[in-house]
Amino acid sequence: MNICAVIMAGGSGTRLWPLSRASHPKQFLSLNGESTMLQSTLDRLSGLDIKSSITICNEEHRFFVAEQLREIDKLGSIILEPSGRNTAPAIALAAFLAEGDPLLLVLSADHVIQDTDAFHKAVNDAIPLADSGKLVTFGIVPNEPHTGYGYIKKGKEKGKGFLVDEFVEKPSVELAQEYVISKKYYWNSGMFLFKASKYLEELKNFRPDIYEACESSMSNTQPDLDFLRVDKIKFESCPSESVDYAVLEKTLDAVVMPLEAGWSDIGSWSSLWDISSKDSTGNSVHGDVMLHNSNNSYIRTDGQLVAAIGVDDLVIVSTKDVLMVAHRKSVQDVKVIAQQLKDKSRSEWELHREVFRPWGKFDAIDNGDGYQVKRLTVNPGAKLSVQMHYHRSEHWVVVSGTARVHYGENFHDLNVNESTYHDKEVVHALENPGETVLELIEVQVGSYLGEDDIVRFEDKYGRNI
């Protein structure tokens, strides 16, 4: 059986702010184990007869996807969406790209599934249905009357699944309780299995506008390093629509396959607390934390010590630049704070203090009037773009490793405790020629220190010049 995994890796995950931010959302974080959520999604496919994979992401996150998949040796194909158009167009791009009319196993990169064997069984049970031309959606067997999910009502038995009788929007608490008691409804997981050709056939039938826009977008693709770029103008003309609305709610061939596998979309800090290991007093602790007389809380720190005394039912998250404290029953409102930060043009909604780049990362450790201090970490063999700045000068001091500094056609190497300086409007580049990580301290001085004061002349990672 030819099965292609389609991994949807978009989304911003603002409900898990401040850990998940627009520039580094939850699917690229390690929230429930050592692997990132994206990596875990691919890893749990081991044991299934998966022949290929296609990951779909946006422009900004493309290097996260490539590097994280390369780390687990599961790179596959990566399609870059010029802009988000929801799941129906994204899946269509994958269906047009997939070779040999495979079954498409469509998964989100930010879900947790704790029982891999049960997940594998549900997928294998769905294969005969999908191979016969059915569009299978996986319905989560509900364990509570959750109002944050859409529901799927099952109809007559079909193979090991059920024909879909009805899709239901997010219900009231009262309706959700009725659904759970009836045992006729499942949570809509947003995971699917169907033939590529069948999906395109139904999409063309019900939403020819989406079909035609995606077909045109894929007729003019451009390879770029590890990525495939679709036609930007044609894709941005495509309507934005979910696969549920575009196809599954209209087709007569929808089947729901029950799934009871410890599934969670980790849609909030409270849901992360639900699935996390806890101590005898119900606390889930991550990082340098000390507790006294505290219960049923989720506490996470990326660095500094967090001490919690006499607190119950709280979520406490400490990053390098933000301390967030919320009651577990109010964590859905975290996205309100993220939106307020965005409205006020504060960087905390989008960026961490530590920012990842394709060449490594930097940590903005201090700043003041007219200066900024960063710690740069450059991976072995990596090189920053050939660039210059209009408004700032830079001082570099090597802390570990070897730095190769380029000024025009000339370069010189710096070792530990050696430094260099370049003024504004000087074209320069930084490279790590060694086999170990390069770390250096950068001191910027100038009238404007924003990241947009970078004029690139050459970039090995294909970023805009």
List keywords for this structure.
single chain; 465 residues; Spore Coat Polysaccharide Biosynthesis Protein SpsA, Chain A; 3 domains; six-stranded antiparallel beta sheet; 22% helix
Tell me about this structure.
The chain folds into three domains: 3-264, Spore Coat Polysaccharide Biosynthesis Protein SpsA, Chain A (Alpha-Beta Complex); 278-336, no CATH class; 354-458, Jelly Rolls. Strand 7 (151-158) and strand 8 form a beta hairpin. The strands form seven sheets. A six-stranded antiparallel sheet has the order 20-21-22-29-24-27, with no helix packed on it. A five-stranded mixed β-barrel has the order 6-9-7-8-12. The protein has eleven helices and 30 strands. The protein has 465 residues and is of the alpha/beta class. The radius of gyration is 24 Å and the shape is globular.
CATH homologous superfamily identity of the largest domain: Spore Coat Polysaccharide Biosynthesis Protein SpsA, Chain A
Number of structural domains: 3
State the total count of DSSP E strands. Answer: 30
Helix share bin:
10-25%
Short description:
With 465 residues, the protein is α/β, with parallel strands linked by helices. Helix content is 22%, strand content 35%.
SSE blueprint and pairings:
Elements: E1 3-8, H1 37-43, E2 50-58, H2 62-71, E3 77-81, H3 87-97, E4 103-108, E5 112-113, H4 116-131, E6 135-140, E7 151-158, E8 161-168, H5 173-182, E9 185-195, H6 196-206, H7 208-218, E10 222-224, E11 227-229, H8 232-236, H9 243-248, E12 254-259, E13 263-264, H10 269-275, E14 284-286, E15 289-292, E16 298-301, E17 306-309, E18 314-318, E19 323-327, H11 334-343, E20 354-357, E21 360-368, E22 371-378, E23 386-388, E24 392-400, E25 403-407, E26 410-414, E27 419-422, E28 429-431, E29 438-446, E30 455-458
Parallel strand pairs: 1-2, 1-4, 2-3, 3-11, 6-12, 14-16, 15-17, 16-18
Antiparallel strand pairs: 4-9, 5-13, 6-9, 7-8, 7-9, 8-12, 10-11, 18-19, 20-21, 21-22, 22-29, 23-30, 24-27, 24-29, 25-26, 25-28
